[in-house]
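Entry 12.
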Amino acid sequence: QFQLLESGGGSVQAGGSLRLSCDVSGYTDSRHCMGWFRLAPGKEREGIARIYISSGDIDYADSVKGRFTFSLDNAKNALYLQMNSLKPEDTAKYYCAADPIPPCGVLSGRPRYRGQGTQVTVSS
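Predicted 3D structure (C-alpha cells):
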C-alpha cells in the first residue's frame, strides 16, 4: 500500500511562498493518480492538483491556478507543491494523496491513500 509523508508546511505572510514535499513509498508498479488536497476548518475538502501517472496530465483547482505548481520526481519518489502568492484563504492542512487504481479521488479530496498532512497558515 501507499505510504505518504508530507513536509514543508509553516506560517507565512500573504504574498509569500512555501514548498510542500511528499515522500512516497509503496505501489511502485501501480499508480493511477497522485496529487494534493486541503482541508480548512469549517470548509469542504478541496482538491488542489492532480496528475494522471500514465499520461502526465496535471489539473489544478481554479482557486490555485497560476499560483501553485505541482511536480512529480519519479527518481526520488516524491511529489512537490510550490505555492506562490499565498493568500489567507489558502490556510489549511494540506494532504498528499494517491490512488493506485481508478477512479481517482484526489480532486474530490477523497483518495484511497493520504498522508498525515502538513499545516499551512497564511496571515494577512
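Annotation: The longest strand covers residues 18-25. Residues 21 and 59 are 18 Å apart (CA to CA).
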